[in-house]
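Field log, afternoon session.

UNIT: design team B
ACTIVITY: writing a sequence onto a fixed backbone
BACKBONE:
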């Protein structure tokens, strides 16, 4: 059987990190999460998980 390379999703590292826990503004993957928010949300909805983002949370 011949292996077909469909390539890795460019935002796969963000998905893996989110499956492990939260991604915070300070994390190096935050910008990738913002850039690919729609695609990442779509991926999680397909597997029954809701992506919740709180972008305007301020620390005192």
């Amino acid at each position: 059987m011949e292996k077909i390379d469909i390539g890795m999703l460019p935002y796969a590292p963000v998905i893996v990190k989110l499956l492990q826990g939260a991604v915070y503004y300070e994390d190096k993957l935050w910008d990738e999460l913002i850039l690919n928010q729609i695609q990442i949300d779509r991926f999680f909805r397909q597997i029954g998980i809701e992506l919740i983002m709180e972008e305007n949370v301020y620390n005192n």
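LOG NOTE: Residues 13 and 29 are 8 Å apart (CA to CA).
NEXT ACTIVITY: expression trials, pending approval
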